């Protein structure tokens, strides 16, 4: 681009020189040396060479030169459109990857419990590592439930489904509804802890004084053995916490009773 | 399943709902005996789950029978290959 600017700058100069030496037999030296592309001037080819240099200096005024640049311009424009389309295509593919992955997993069943366990079973790898899973139970503040694990720990091999129990007892005098959530420590091992079935995330209602044994069915992903980050981890702690959703007061019970007509006879 | 410590890392881990759903509560204590057997077995075998797998399978079958659990094939729950102690051959163990 600077080349064309320089070209235009020398336009007046070359025309000036042309006027001074209209019949000059030499190519003007100044523009020649500016571009360092001086060639030995042959007096026989003087006119054609001069025309050539003038066309260069005038920056594409020569018709042959301008179509060439037009062709390259069209080519570059096409290339630009093509590349922009590729960029947008890639971005769109990235966005589409999420639902596509989900449908693929659902259709093939890859990654679900039975598929993983079947794969592990068929590969015949013997799991030597024994992992100790300890249990912890918590209750939110102000909730009158007694919530404890029924077993302190379980020694489990990865790939085997394990059953565990918790005991929850409603120590208050009113029915309480609670919901629980869990977490696994150490956190990075939580990825390999898969719950098949549990009692969490759904409201559980206990009548006053009722004691309930709630089970959890889980397994540890066999891939924990191949992960180098899990090398020193042989202990997992599964922790459940119960939160109160609602507590029915005796006033509610009385109201319900009075609104419902007495059905029991004698 | 090797999730790296990408943006958020362990902070981003949130509790995942269970794969096969939620156990309904056993209000009427219908499967208590199986449960007690399983817990007893755990205590006697120093909490090794391998030796008590047949009892946990029994407990789940009890739940299915009493309509406390959706009926599923045992292999779906990861119990393929577990032989029961008093196998009568009625359940498909493979």
TrEMBL record, chain A:
Keywords: Membrane, Transmembrane, Transmembrane helix. It is a single-pass membrane protein. The chain crosses the membrane at residues 79-98. Pfam families: CtaG_Cox11. It is found in: Mitochondrion inner membrane. InterPro entries: CtaG/Cox11_dom_sf, Cyt_c_oxidase_assmbl_CtaG. GO terms for molecular function: copper ion binding. One of its GO terms (cellular component) is mitochondrial inner membrane. SUPFAM superfamilies: Ctag/Cox11 (SSF110111). Exerts its effect at some terminal stage of cytochrome c oxidase synthesis, probably by being involved in the insertion of the copper B into subunit I. HAMAP family: CtaG (MF_00155). This is Cytochrome c oxidase assembly protein COX11, mitochondrial. The lineage of its organism: Eukaryota, Viridiplantae, Streptophyta, Embryophyta, Tracheophyta.
UniProtKB/TrEMBL annotation, chain B:
It comes from the Eukaryota. Keywords: Disulfide bond. Residues 31-65 form the CHCH domain. InterPro entries: CHCH. PANTHER family: CYTOCHROME C OXIDASE 19-1. This is CHCH domain-containing protein. It comes from Brassica carinata. The lineage of its organism: Eukaryota, Viridiplantae, Streptophyta, Embryophyta, Tracheophyta.
């Amino acid at each position: 681009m600077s080349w064309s600017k320089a070209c235009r700058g020398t336009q007046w100069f070359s025309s000036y020189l042309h006027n001074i030496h209209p019949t000059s037999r030499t190519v003007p030296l100044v523009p020649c040396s500016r571009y360092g592309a001086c060639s030995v001037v042959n007096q026989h080819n003087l006119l054609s060479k001069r025309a050539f240099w003038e066309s260069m200096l005038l920056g594409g005024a020569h018709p042959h030169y301008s179509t060439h640049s037009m062709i390259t311009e069209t080519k570059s424009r096409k290339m630009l459109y093509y590349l922009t389309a590729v960029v947008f295509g890639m971005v769109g593919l990235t966005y589409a990857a999420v639902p596509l992955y989900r449908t693929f997993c659902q259709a093939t069943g890859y990654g679900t419990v039975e598929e993983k366990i079947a794969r592990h079973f068929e590969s015949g790898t013997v799991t030597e590592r024994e992992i100790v899973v300890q249990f912890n139970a918590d209750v939110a503040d102000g909730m009158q439930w007694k919530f404890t694990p029924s077993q302190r720990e379980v020694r489990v091999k990865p790939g085997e489904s394990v059953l565990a129990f918790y005991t929850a007892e409603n120590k208050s005098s009113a029915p309480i509804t609670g919901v629980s959530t869990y977490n696994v420590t150490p956190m990075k091992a939580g990825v390999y802890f898969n719950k098949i079935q549990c009692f969490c995330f759904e409201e559980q209602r206990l009548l006053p004084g009722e004691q309930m044994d709630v089970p959890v069915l889980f397994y540890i992903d066999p891939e924990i053995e191949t992960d180098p980050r899990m090398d020193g981890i042989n202990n997992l702690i599964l922790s459940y916490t119960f939160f109160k959703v609602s507590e029915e007061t005796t006033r509610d019970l009385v109201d319900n009773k009075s609104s419902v007509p007495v059905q029991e006879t004698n | 399943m090797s999730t790296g410590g990408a943006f958020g890392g362990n902070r981003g881990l949130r509790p995942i709902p269970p794969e096969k759903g939620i156990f309904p509560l056993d209000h009427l204590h219908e499967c208590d005996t199986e449960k007690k057997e399983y817990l007893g077995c755990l205590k006697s075998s120093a909490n090794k789950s391998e030796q008590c797998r047949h009892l946990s399978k029994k407990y789940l079958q009890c739940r299915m029978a009493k309509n406390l659990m959706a009926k599923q094939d045992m292999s779906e729950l990861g119990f393929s290959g577990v032989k029961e102690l008093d196998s009568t051959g009625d359940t498909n163990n493979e």
